[in-house]
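Problem 3 from the worked examples.
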Amino acid sequence: MTQISAPPMIRLMDVSKGYGGKQVLHGIDMSIDRGEFVVLVGPSGGGKTTLLQLLNKMLTVDDGEIYIDGRPISRMPGTELRRSIGYVIQGGGLFPHMTVERNIGIMMELAGRPKSEVRERVAAMLDMVELERSLLDSYPSQLSGGQQQRVGVARAFATNPDIILMDEPFSALDPITRADLQGQLVDLHHRYGKTIVFVTHDMDEAVKCADRICVIQHGAVLQFDTPAEILANPASDFVASFVGRAESVSRAIASIAGRGAGAGGRRKELTR
């Protein structure tokens, strides 16, 4: 009996997007598997954030189609789609007039979940990102940058989405906090198996976090492969120049090797 393989979690087919007569993305074709951590890397203005925002219909494609778990998103209401996908930006994108508790629980509230369930889930998410529950009544202005970002990650995971999008979430943080949060995110990915699409222009960050790296320049995919393959066999001079920006290729390879055992292990699912 022939088995039908599951569709990729995310599939872009010949996707193009432009603004004001300027083409930003050109015929993008790519597939991202369920549970994969993909990092989009490249220079500013290359189309990374535009691609990310097409995935949850904050922007709409001009040509082509995007599929989420086999469903074309052109046929899905934008609000419904966005509520089913976690989203993290610089500073966590927190609402300044809401407490930590409400910031994390807001999407569950909008979905009509019981208050007791929301409170329980918010507390569990704080534990997950290693924040004290005493911060529940704090406001974003009372938190450090690292704490704000952890709250943003907690909110993204709170509704147990299959997909989490992250747009340069750690770029404004100091190096020590940034490295700590990168490590925590990789650990969360290994534990819970979410499909993560992460934007950065830091090759070190890409190598540390990604299962696969997609190098984008001028709205086109130059190479989409594992960190080890990109480091060893860059597809162009531009990709080679990005590899050269990594602090240490040997350190990067060691990072990949260190993640290997965990990445292949069994991942827990967050309980609903």
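Problem 4, a separate protein:
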Amino acid sequence: MSDRLAPGSGDDVPLKKLITSAIADMQRLIKAQVELAKIEIAGSAQAAAKTGGLLTGALVMAGTGGLFLLVTIAYVLVAIGLPVWAGFGIVTAFLFLVAVILGLLGRSAAKKIKGPERTIAEINKTKAALSGHASTPAIGTVPSSARD
């Protein structure tokens, strides 16, 4: 019996291979999950870039509106006949309306940006498989026992 427990005995070799194989499998699994996260984050980055473009457009339009407001005020001082400022005022109001619309579109697009949902789901599956429990709570959720 003491021969069986001695270090370096023949029974240790398969166990070492199993442990090495399990570690290699875990490394591949973690690398795959990191790769999935990169792919999902790249998609979110594209949506964020679009949102940034819309918000930048809103700022440019608001800035242009500000310039027209200044020109309108200048023409109010020199208006003769049908006031020129009225035309510039309509253009200014239109530019601000466009800025508001672009800002609302940007805010709406920002609300649609999601995190790496599939990656989180895969990590939760891995945690459940490693712990041997099929009902492991998802990342960021509170277990029902902790709510009471």
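Solution to problem 4. Residues 12-77 form the longest helix (66 residues). The chain has one domain: 11-120.
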